Amino acid sequence: MTIIESTVEVSKPINEVYTFLSNMNNHQQLMPDNIYNWESTEDVARFTIQNMAKLAIKISERVENKELTAIPSEKAPFDIELKWTVTDNGNGTTTAKHIISADLNMMMKMLASGPLQTLVDHQTEKLKEILG
């Protein structure tokens, strides 16, 4: 299993960060420019990654003010889990960590690791930008 993660501190209380992340409609704001054909509801998002694949993910688990887990809702090119964890820093700020776990063979690992790391870094930075 390949684990790719990125962490950011957001200047908002944990409940605001969790509420934002728990709605898949908000995740479009976190996506880079190479994501298009975005469709979402509160629980499901469908999108295309330019030159790669179409993905449909759904929130499979919510632990209020702790973590959110999303998994493919349709057949994906490989097994993947996307998880956000949020931690209260006790001073009105929240640490958010985005973790992607993907079952990649060696070839896919070489091709996908860089783009996936870029994706999680972009998403955590956008989260900080949007929520302050």
How does this structure look, described?
A 7-stranded antiparallel β-sheet has the order 1-7-6-5-4-3-2, covered by helices on one side. The protein is α+β, with helices and mostly antiparallel strands. About 25% of the residues lie in helices and about 40% in strands. It is built from 2 helices and 7 strands. The termini are far apart.
Summarize the structure.
This protein is 26% helix and 42% strand. The chain is of the alpha+beta class and 132 residues long.
What's the SSE blueprint?
Layout: E1 2-10, H1 14-21, E2 35-40, E3 44-49, E4 53-63, E5 67-72, E6 80-88, E7 94-102, H2 106-131
Antiparallel strand pairs: 1-7, 2-3, 3-4, 4-5, 5-6, 6-7
Rounded Rg: 14 Å
Q: Report the order of strands and helices.
A: EHEEEEEEH
Spatial sequence of strands, sheet with the most strands = 1-7-6-5-4-3-2
As a percent range, the share of strand residues is 35-45%
Observed structural traits:
132 residues; alpha+beta; seven-stranded antiparallel beta sheet; 26% helix
